[in-house]
Amino acid sequence: MFVRNAWYVAAFVHECSERPLARTILGEPVVLFRTPSGPCVALQDRCCHRFAPLSMGDVEADGIRCRYHGMKFSPQGACIEIPGQSVIPPKMCVQSFPLVERHGLLWIWMGEAQRADPELIVDVHWNDDPAWPTARGYIHYKANYQLIADNLLDFSHLTYVHRTTLANAAFPNSHPQITPFERGIRLVREIRDCEASPLHAMAGRFEGKVDFWNRQVWWLPSVFENWAGSVPTGAEGAPHERPGGLHLRHFSLLTPETEKTSHYFWVQPCQFPHGDNSVIEQVGQGIAKAFAEDNWIIEAQQKSWEACPPEIQPLSVRNDAALGRVRFMINELLKQEQTPAPLHSAA
């Protein structure tokens, strides 16, 4: 089950073109395309006539044409042409989904269209800010999105899963300050006078010990924002406010595909203390390597979870505090969506 009244990333903007793109989101087939003169469009990827995928069709100036019997649909989902038939029944339409193009990402709303408020979209403006060189990528996971969320919310795994990329021996004993708010949770962690992770040492060109910080936000249901960085140790003041620091403005944007598969979009804007922005290529390679390490363990975990008898449940430890809180909040959102609206009696 998925929270439907929320914004999810459907694609990077550059993926949407006059060539239809098929993508399953929250278990529903969606076709994304851009008409020659209009914005990107998201429609149900199923012609209402004989259920052929519209993603196999052709984009035209005023819509998309099904390649089976030639029915054409407008960007709003209305059928505007039936070959051999002049009258178009009102029911001849496909569902359209609210879609917003913002900061290089396409955000889709799969729930009640009247509740799709663009003001609720998470701010990812660093992704197209020239002052922040950015690495980005996509991973298709054979795992439920909440297992990926668990991984992002418990950084104690970095020491063991990411030995050559993000490892920091201090992580297992460094517990973040967790503050819930209406739309998720905030986590703050600082580790002073520690060895820089391999990725931070390379990107920041640090030769000695550093003060490290994480200032994270989990936006319900599935966006992880992580402002992380390192700065040479030994000075006073908050590490993230001191000059000479490496700043990483990371976003992991999870979109459930099915109950057992997920889309994982990530963007990694950076600011380097040495001013050499060419390092972003190495950062992107390092992040991609680290996420491949996560993929390896999480997909194995998914298989193990499926094989486990339902009466056996995982046990929790102290480092599960953040992920446990997020799972609870997601369950509360699911309950709200499943609760029927109260009936109002006539006056």
Describe the protein.
With 347 residues, the protein is an alpha+beta fold. Helices cover 19% and strands 31% of the residues. The radius of gyration is 23 Å and the shape is globular. The model has no long low-confidence stretch (mean pLDDT 92).
Helical stretch count?
A: 5
Which series of helices and strands comes N to C? EEEEEEEEEEEHHEEHEEEEHH
Taking all Cα atoms into account, the compactness measure Rg is 23 Å
- Looking at the overall shape, the CATH architecture of the largest domain is Alpha-Beta Complex
Q: What would you give as the CATH superfamily of the largest domain?
A: Naphthalene 1,2-dioxygenase Alpha Subunit, Chain A, domain 1
Mean of residue pLDDT values? 92
Strands, total number:
17
In the predicted model, the low-confidence regions spanning at least 5 consecutive residues are none
CATH class of the largest domain: Alpha Beta
The structure class reads alpha+beta
CATH topology annotation of the largest domain: Naphthalene 1,2-dioxygenase Alpha Subunit, Chain A, domain 1
Shape: globular
